[in-house]
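Need residues for this backbone.
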């Protein structure tokens, strides 16, 4: 993991559970076989490039304050091509509904409406699209699928999952 802040991962290893690691064929939501939870990576010097290059937003950006530390919040925040993704520790699927996290997520969704940014909560492979005034629980979204939003102006009024043919 890399950081442009003075923060360090410390006792946190949550990305080694919630993220999928293609090079290891590791699915999202289960511990990497090389992880010593709370301690670190047993193959740190030889870890895949996607692990080496990864930094969650709490580690990389001081804008997320201390309560957002993933080992405390049970939430790993990352940027995506079109917005933000908040991955829950599968054992705490409602972590994102607790405060102060829920209020921040609602605020990001409101900003997203203005800036055409998508805010997704991801629990394992289940995806919830968060709009300022409602949620769209999309169920399991596979790696070969993508989310299509239905807009009325800037308001999200619907969301569906389609095969990604690109
Ligand atoms: S989730 Fe963030 S803080 Fe935790 S180990 Fe991964 S990069 Fe470090
Ligand atoms: S290889 Fe190491 S850094 Fe990468 S997911 Fe596994 S434990 Fe984490």
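Answer:
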């Amino acid at each position: 993991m890399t950081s442009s802040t003075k923060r360090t991962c410390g006792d946190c290893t949550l990305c080694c559970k919630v993220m999928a690691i293609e090079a290891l064929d590791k699915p999202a939501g289960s511990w990497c076989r090389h992880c010593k939870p709370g301690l670190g990576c047993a193959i740190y010097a030889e870890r895949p490039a996607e692990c080496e290059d990864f930094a969650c937003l709490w580690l990389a950006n001081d804008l997320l304050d201390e309560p957002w530390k993933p080992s405390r919040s049970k939430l790993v925040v990352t940027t995506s091509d079109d917005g933000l993704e908040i991955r829950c520790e599968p054992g705490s699927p409602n972590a994102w509904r607790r405060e102060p996290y829920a209020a921040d997520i609602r605020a990001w969704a409101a900003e997203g409406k203005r800036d055409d940014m998508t805010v997704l909560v991801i629990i394992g492979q289940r995806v919830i699209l968060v709009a300022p005034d409602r949620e769209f629980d999309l169920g399991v979204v596979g790696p070969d699928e993508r989310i299509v939003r239905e807009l009325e102006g800037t308001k999200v009024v619907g969301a569906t999952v389609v095969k990604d043919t690109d």
